[in-house]
Amino acid sequence: MTNACWHLQLEIEEFIETWAQDNLADDTLTETEWETITKIKVFLEKLKMLTTECGGHNSTLDIILPSMDYMLPAFEKGKEIALAKLDLILTPLYNSRWEKMEKSFALADQTPVYIAAVILHTSLNWRYFNCNCSQEWRVDG
Q1: Contact indicator for 72, 101 with CB cutoff of 8 Å
Q2: What is the pLDDT of residues 28-81, one digit of tens each?
Q3: What is the rounded distance in angstroms from the CA atom of residue 12 to the CA atom of residue 6?
Q4: Which of 37, 27, 50, 33 lies closest to 6 in space, CA to CA?
Q5: Among 29, 55, 93, 139, which one has the highest count of C-beta atoms within 10 angstroms of its own C-beta?
Q6: What is the pTM of this model?
Q7: Is residue 137 within 8 Å of 129, Cβ to Cβ?
Q8: Which superkingdom heads the taxonomic lineage of this protein's source (predicted)?
Q9: Sign of the four-CA dihedral 56, 59, 64, 66
């Protein structure tokens, strides 16, 4: 819905300008509201990418952890920017997703099957842990 609204911004504004008399004047979106829609759209696109990658019947455990590794820094950066700008729209969105991903990482750390899936993956192996994880997960040699 947000995506469709964003793509139809010009048409929506033209319709209201052409056909709306005084009865829809209060329903016209301001520039700030359009900016908010854009922010939410970008945020949701990031979630869609992660959900698409990690969901469905083609997803395997070895895909989930690297995908989360990719998204967590993006959410951390977004959260910092939103907090610095005192953005009342994005700050709660980033906070809730960041907390959810932190919880997922904590659960993955306690689940050996995730670790086994990554280690057994031919392109990841222990290199993944040596490059992406804290020292306690790394293997020497």
Answers
A1: yes
A2: 778 888 888 888 888 788 778 777 767 777 677 667 777 777 777 877 888 888
A3: 9
A4: 37
A5: 93
A6: 0.55
A7: yes
A8: Eukaryota
A9: negative
Residues 94 and 43: beta-carbon distance below 8 Å: yes
Residue 33, token pair as written in the block? 């509201």
DSSP track, the chain? -HHHHHHTHHHHHHHHHHH--GGGGGGPPPHHHHHHHHHHHHHHHHHHHHHHHH-STT--HHHHHHHHHHHHHHHHHHHHHHHHTT-TTHHHHHHHHHHHHHHHHHHHHT-HHHHHHHHHSTTTHHHHHHHHS-GGG----
Structure tokens at 17: 């300008």
* Cα distance between residue 96 and residue 137, in whole Å: 27
Per residue in 72-95, pLDDT tens? Answer: 787 788 888 888 888 888 888 888
Q: Is the Cβ–Cβ distance between 90 and 68 less than 8 Å?
A: no
